[in-house]
Amino acid sequence: MNKEAFEKGLKTRREVLGAEYVDNSIKNADAFNMPMQELVTEYCWNEIWNRPGLDRRTRSIINLSMITALNRSHELKLHVRGAINNGLSKEDIQEVFLQAAIYCGVPAAIDSFRCAKEVFAEMGI
C-alpha cells in the first residue's frame, strides 16, 4: 500500500461520502477486509476520483449510472448521498435514473428511485 496515495484517497472519500461513514468502514475493517478498504481508498478514491479530467459532480453522475446498471442498492444509496455532497440536486438524480431506465432497464432504474427516496428522507431533502 502506498501510504501517501491512501491518505489522499481517504481525504477525498471522506469529502464525498461523509467522514462518519468512511471512518466507520475503516474502523470496522479486520484482517480479512482491510486490504479491500486500502485498495478502494488508494485506487478508486485517489487514482480515479482525484484525476483532473472530470469534476466530482460529473463522476457522481457516472457512478449513479453504472451502479444503477449493476443494480447494487447498497452502493447506490451511498453514492446518492455522495452525489448530493458533490452538488447534484434531486432533479439531477431523477434525470440520471430516467436515462438509465432506457439504457440499463426499467427494473434497475425503479430500484434506484426507491433507494434515492430513502436517502432523501434520511437527509431531510
Describe the model:
The chain has 125 residues and is mainly alpha-helical. The chain has two domains: 3-48, no CATH class; 56-123, AhpD-like, CATH 1.20.1290. Helix content is 80%, strand content 0%. α1 (3-17) crosses α3, α5 crosses α7 (106-123) and α6 (90-104) packs antiparallel against α7 (106-123). The chain is globular, with a radius of gyration of 15 Å. The relative contact order is 0.12. Its EC number is 4.1.1.44.
Topology, element by element:
Blueprint: H1 3-17, H2 19-27, H3 34-48, H4 56-70, H5 73-85, H6 90-104, H7 106-123
Proportion of helical residues? over 70%
Number of helices: 7
Q: At the third CATH level, what is the topology name of the largest domain?
A: AhpD-like
Helix/strand structural class: mainly alpha
Distance between the amino and carboxyl termini: 38 Å
- Overall 3D shape: globular
For CATH, the homologous superfamily of the largest domain is named as AhpD-like
Compute the number of strand runs. 0
Summarize the biggest pleated sheet: none
Calculate the mean pLDDT score and round it. 94
Portion of residues in beta strands equals: under 5%
What is the chain-wise order of helices and strands? HHHHHHH
The poorly predicted ranges are none
Compute the gyration radius: what is it? 15 Å
Which CATH-level-2 architecture of the largest domain?
Answer: Up-down Bundle
Supply the CATH class of the largest domain: Mainly Alpha
Counted up, domains total 2
